[in-house]
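Q: What would this chain look like folded?
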Amino acid sequence: RVQLMESGGGSVQTGGSLRLSCGASGYTGTFGCMGWFRKVPGKERERVATVESGGATKYSDFVKGRFTVSRDTGKDNLYLQMNNLNSEDTAIYYCAAASSTNPCRSDYFLMNYWGEGTMVAVAS
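A: My prediction, written as structure tokens:
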């Protein structure tokens, strides 16, 4: 059974930083697209950042210049460095991965593996 597990969430003040990590187990081979998504109650799940197996990255506009996604392809580990956090970043953050080799998309429909999420709370 494939499992993704996030860690590194927590509470910070506005302007602070957090680093999220995601480890994978139970998967034979290398994932295609991997990414971070977030969910706020009452809103749709939204993409934060994705990274292709070859390393190409994409970010949603609301995190550009503040967040950095990286990937350890050999181990299928995924990271998200979040700097200059603000209250609008408060959400549950999910790690996701795709078994398909199709390019990453701006929505979450390509992803077929998900972690359980880690909470990020930013206090103003």
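The chain has a mean pLDDT of 95.
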